Amino acid sequence: MAVSNILSPDHLVNYINDSAVVKVALRPSRLLVMAFLGGIFISLGALLAVVVAGGATQLLAENPGLDKLLFGAVFPIGFIAVVLTGADLFTSNCATQMVPWYRRQVKLQEVVRVWGVSYLGNLIGALFAAWAFAYMTGLLTANQPWTPYIINLAEHKVHQPFQVVFMKGVLANMLVCVAAWQGYSAKDTLGRMVGIWAPVMTFVALGMEHSIANLFFVPAAMLAGADITLLDFATHNLLPATLGNIVGGALLIGLPYAWLYSETDGKVVNPTDIDLP
C-alpha cells in the first residue's frame, strides 16, 4: 500500500495544534531567539528580492508586471528558511495559535504572549538585518541601481490610506498562512518548499502588506535616505498592516480551519517530531 507524502487536512490541523501548544510552553527567551532568526531570514529574502528586481532596471521600465513577478519569485526564500530551520514568524503564529485556543487547550493571554514575543523577536531581527546586511555591507549605497527601487517601494508603503494598507495586510497574511499550511502538510523538504513558494510569491507580486517584511523594507530604505519618519512608518503602514495580518491569519485562516476540523480533536497524530515555526 502506497504511503502518502502529505498529511490529510484533519491530521494537518491536529499537527498544527500540537505544535502550537508546544510553542506556548517555550521559555520566552527561546521563542525570542527563534523569532529573531525568523526576522533575519525574512529580511534576507526581502533583500534578495530588492537586489534582483530593483537591479533589473530595463525590465522594470519595459514590463513592470514581469518585474513584480520576479520580485515575488525570489522573496519566498526567507519564508522557506523560517519553516525548514524551525525559526519563528509572528504572521504564521496568528493562524496556528488559533487552533488550540479554539479547542480550549491554551488561554487567550497565552496566545497574545506568543504573538508579542514573536513580534518583538521579528522586529529585532529585521532591524538588525536592515542595518548589518543591507546598510553596513554597502548594498544600499547611492550608486546601486536598486537603492532608488527600495526607496520608492518604502515611500509608497507609507503614503497609502489606512484602510488600503489594512486590507492588503489581510490578504497578505491569508496567503502567508496558506503557505504555512501547505508547507506543513508535506513530509519532504521539496514538497514543503513548493507548498510555501506559490502563495508567498503571489502576495508579494501583488504588492500586499506583510508587517514583518515591512520592518525590513522601510527601515532599510530610511537608512538609504528615504524621506520617512518613524511616526509615519508606525502609523501609516506598520499599524494597519499588523492589524490586517492578525485578521487575515487568525480570523480568516486559523479559526475557520479550527472549526472545520474541530470534530477531530483528540485524535492521535503521529508526526515524527514537532518542529513547526
From TrEMBL:
The chain crosses the membrane at residues 31-57, 69-90, 111-136, 165-184, 196-218, 238-260. It is a multi-pass membrane protein. Keywords: Membrane, Transmembrane, Transmembrane helix. Pfam families: Form_Nir_trans. It comes from the Bacteria. It is found in: Membrane. Belongs to the FNT transporter (TC 1.A.16) family. This is Formate/nitrite transporter family protein.
